[in-house]
Amino acid sequence: MSTDVVHTQVTGAAARSLPPSSGLRMLAVHAHPDDESSKGAAMMAAYAAAGAEVMVATATGGEQGDLLNPAAEEILQTHRDLPGVRRMEMAEAAEALNISHVWLGFADSGLPEGDPTPPLPFGSFATLPLEQAAAPLVRLVRRFRPHVILSYDEVGGYPHPDHIMSHKITVEAYRAAGDPTQYPGLGEAWEPQKLYYDRAFNPGRFEAIHNALIEAGHESPYEDRLLRFRDGSIPWMTEHKVTTQIPVGTFLEHRDRALRAHRTQVEPDGFFFATPNEFLREVWPWDDYVLVDSRVETELPEHDLFSGLR
Disulfide-capable partner of 146 in 13, 27, 74, 187 (CB 3.0 to 4.6 Å)? Predict the structure, then answer.
């Protein structure tokens, strides 16, 4: 797969720690609480430990989400006030990663199912005009002044309406926040320097871990997913090549604490914890990204999201 070239070229980066990052700022844009913990959590914890200011902006409250952890069914408050519970979970996850967090304040669109699919709730995030949906993020970019912005690719990482809209507003904010003639009244213009897409579900990563597990005589939790990648039954997977791998091996436990903070959404012994961290540190100790645009010179492949900015 396309990631194999990058894998062999940056293997030496696995043992590196990130350089001191004081004075640098990073903004990750996500659709729902828990997305930040399943996509790039170890990377954010690593940069926070290196001194960078790391912020997550969550577009919606996740109020349309289901209870995905059966144990949470027993918590009365979960049934009475799921949005409130998810806000508390998000605060706990941010604390686990040592990052800051803001809500953009939109209503969760839900994931429509059926044939034909039902319309999205009126006024929900994914139904809004782009300029209306992007305005709070443009304001945040101009206030926080990030050097680097991260979000999902064109299909949202997977085709949830809120993930796709998160992609759209991120690209729009990256494009427009530095232009004082656009979105007037939302603060002094600030131009972010680099835009990345997350590749948390990089097929090359799954294949490398799967093969290593099989070679070591273990069962692999990735076999079904890899078969679906190969037979095309996951048609929404984009072909972006990984350009940037961030060494995160010493921060996998931070990721785990953040994931487990989202008790309503993540089973404590579920898929995310199926492979021991010690094994991951040996096989694939990176978080993977695609550099989509850079306004500074940088050399690929990278092992630092702030490459070219130091």
Answer: 27
Is it true that the peptide bond before 203 is cis, omega within 30 degrees of 0?
A: no
Domain boundaries, the chain: 3-294
Domain range 3-294, CATH class = alpha beta
What value does the mean pLDDT take over residues 284-298? 98
Residue 115 annotated in ligand binding: no
| Total count of residues recorded for the chain | 310
Q: Which amino acid is at 212?
A: A
Q: Is 218 annotated as a binding residue?
A: no
Query: What's the helix, strand, coil split of the chain in %, to 5?
Result: 40, 15, 45
pLDDT in tens, 225-242: 888 888 777 766 677 999
Q: How far is CA 256 from the centre of its chain?
A: 14
pTM for the whole thing? Answer: 0.91
pLDDT of residue 16: 66
Tell me whether residue 160 is annotated as binding: no
pLDDT at 199: 95
Provide the sign of the torsion angle of the four alpha carbons 120, 121, 124, 130, taken in this order.
positive
Contact assessment for residue 6 and residue 245, using Cβ atoms and an 8 Å cutoff = yes
First to last CA, the chain: 31
> Which two structure tokens, joined as six digits, stand for 43?
């990377």
pLDDT at site 114: 81
Task: Please tell me the distance from the alpha carbon of residue 165 to that of residue 154, in angstroms, as a whole number.
Answer: 9
